[in-house]
Amino acid sequence: MIKTRTGQVIVTNENQNRLLKKLYGNVFGRILLKALTAPAVSRAVGLFMDSGASKALIKPFIKRSGIDTSEYVMYDFSSYNDFFTRTIKPGKRPVDREPSHLISPCDSKLTVHKIGRNSIFRIKGSRYRVSDLLQNEFLAKRYCGGYCMIFRLEVDDYHRYCYIDDGIKTDNTYIAGELHTVNPVALERYNIYKRNCREYTVLHTVNFGDVVQVEVGAMMVGRIVNNHGEGGMSRGMEKGRFEFGGSTIVLLFGKDTVRPDEDILRNSAGNTETVVRYGEKIGVKA
Predict the structure, then answer these.
(1) In this structure, are residues 182 and 218 in contact, taking their beta carbons and an 8 Å threshold?
(2) Fewer CB within 10 Å, N or C, the chain?
(3) What is the pLDDT of residues 168-182, one digit of tens each?
(4) Which of 42, 54, 131, 247 is catalytic?
(5) Residue 122 in contact with residue 269, Cβ under 8 Å?
């Protein structure tokens, strides 16, 4: 289930959900997925989405997804990926500048989970270890007792993301893997955050301590495009973008560093995602 910040229940991408249930729900579908989620296939699809021929997909996608194009800078896009990574119009995603406020790095559907004593957390009934996500046991242990925030982007979301605070960041660490959809349907059979390609960095923030941000690639998304290596960062500054497909961002916070907003905690406890926007307040400094 998905809710807005006002408590309205919404339903999204039902046709996509039905297709995914068929693919992940039987042996023949999973054989097909083995081929579809191979990095080589994702790269081939990415090349097509960068080509002029892919422009034909733009108008049908806008109509099918009901995208409000008035929010975006629209022009004669050179490819589907050019459209997919479109920029938002100035003022359409105002960034909360209050230092003590934690902001969302992106437009997405958010769930929040407490990281247990053994650095294990649950998403839709599946178990995950932070060390599996990062492939770094030492780093993972630092976040025991903190929060794991999962921001799931769907294909019709704005696919650029920003820094949540001022500070400095480490270089980006890339982890290769198979590319599976981040739709919750897939969680029933695959530990996707362990299998997917992903990239993470440690953000040394002014207000929330050391935060790990992980970008997770999804089915047909081989490219996570981060704009910066090691260096400075500022709240609301664009960090990067995902190219074609739905994707996920994971933020890991240390113990006693943040307090998520009550509606988000309440929804997450009921296995409900909360719709959040790039730059909006989702919590406070603890």
Answers:
(1) yes
(2) N
(3) 999 999 988 765 666
(4) 247
(5) no
